[in-house]
TrEMBL record:
Belongs to the AHA1 family. Residues 12-127 form the Activator of Hsp90 ATPase homologue 1/2-like C-terminal domain. It comes from the Bacteria. Gene3D superfamilies: 3.30.530.20. InterPro entries: ASHA1/2-like_C, START-like_dom_sf. SUPFAM superfamilies: Bet v1-like. Pfam families: AHSA1. This is SRPBCC domain-containing protein.
Length: 146
């Protein structure tokens, strides 16, 4: 299955950035309009992001180093809830934290849309986690190819 990898450097500590991955207030500051999160292995990962109902589970939570969630779209035949996996790895760097994202298990028609999504959302994470306001989010994903 295709995958996507990207990263962003953030002027904040790993502890600060970690909260933006595991709390509803943190996640919706940079991605999504609504979230229900239970950050423990097997816990709920529910977020409404850019018009898509993302559903999955927390698979791994290693504060403040790593978060792994299953990821899919409610009602999607090609990317159902939990069908793919997103891994966030947080590494301390001299200027704060490097966040690496690895999104694995994507169906080929969904790769371009998720690549565009991560390119949009990771800079918003950098702004929010470093104390800024990324503003209202009006981005919408590319439609998957038929």
């Amino acid at each position: 299955m295709p995958e996507h990898r990207s990263s962003v450097d953030i002027a904040a500590s790993p502890d600060t950035v970690f909260a933006y991955l595991v709390t509803p207030e943190g996640l919706t500051a940079w991605m999504g309009q609504h979230a229900v999160l239970d950050p423990r292995p097997g816990g709920e990962f529910t977020a409404d992001i850019a018009g898509s109902p993302i559903r999955g589970r927390f698979l791994e939570v290693d504060e403040p180093h790593r978060v792994v969630v299953s990821w899919g779209v409610a009602g999607s035949p090609d990317l159902p809830p939990g069908a793919s996996t997103v891994t966030f790895t947080l590494t301390p760097i001299a200027t704060g934290t490097r966040v690496q994202v690895h999104h694995a298990g994507l169906p080929e028609p969904r790769v371009a849309g998720h690549r565009a999504g991560w390119a949009h959302f990771l800079p918003r994470l950098a702004v929010a986690a470093s104390g800024g306001d990324p503003g209202a989010d009006v981005w919408r994903p590319l439609a998957p190819a038929d």
